[in-house]
């Protein structure tokens, strides 16, 4: 009996340790991937998209608040791979951990659903999870650089903006993709696979052209996003947005295509404006379409149930879920009431 009781008690710390390490490794891998492409603003190096913030918010939404040590450990791994442990580094570690936790708390406070099936969920992820919560990490991180004389005070706002947008883009692009991948339970039907393959082939041809052409053709990706959102909802639109964002970031960091002959600040502004509007379009459009589809299905089910009830009533049978005895008692009661009413009326007239 003692062994049976002790097994769950020993299993819980083991599960917690494995889960924490898995989150830390995922955060670290995303961080190393984000560092592949960098931009420099006012002497400070930053990534246009910081995937670890999206990974952290997704892990918190899927696994709960208890995984925050894994986020802190993963952030420590990323920081230690770049520099040594200093006061400014500790501030960055705190900010990078606190921002996703704040995003999680705010999203749960407003009743956020992981399936992003409502417009309010998309708006909450944009304005609370990305734009508001990431103010914490950027403010703490850049503030520590200024306080430790690693950054000039006059460069605060330019670096702060680049840091904030990079963290927010990680939440806008990476978090929905991870939530969608976690929610997938069955593959597409064979008929849908043909369309999905066709969409993927067109994206592989059109997106590199739009992001690397000297002629400004970035607008060509929006019909592609609309097609993906209409036919495949969040999964299609966000995967398309992720691929487009990666290709645009590659073009921006290489200063080719529409980003050629621009200053570093202009490249940052153009890239982040494009990535932001594209992610917002994909996320909110797919949320609206999914919400409308759910509403339509609910109305269709209600109409079908009403038709079934009317058919049973017309045939004299009990509606589904209602015994015949109840209907007979109801009919007897109504007949008795009608008889009493008739007799009362005749007595008054008499």
From TrEMBL:
As for subcellular location, the record says:
Cell membrane
**Region annotation Disordered: residue ranges?**
315-350
**InterPro entries linked to this entry:** MASE1
What membrane topology does this protein have?
A: Multi-pass membrane protein
Query: Keywords on this record?
Result: Cell membrane, Membrane, Transmembrane, Transmembrane helix
Entry annotated with the keyword Zinc? no
Q: Has the keyword Transmembrane been applied to this entry?
A: yes
Q: Which domain of life is it from?
A: Bacteria
Query: Where do Low complexity bias regions lie?
Result: 333-342
Major localisation: membrane
MASE1 domain mapped to chain residues:
21-293
Query: Membrane-spanning residues where?
Result: 16-35, 55-82, 88-107, 123-148, 160-184, 196-222, 234-252, 273-290
One Pfam family name is MASE1
Protein name, per record: Integral membrane sensor domain MASE1
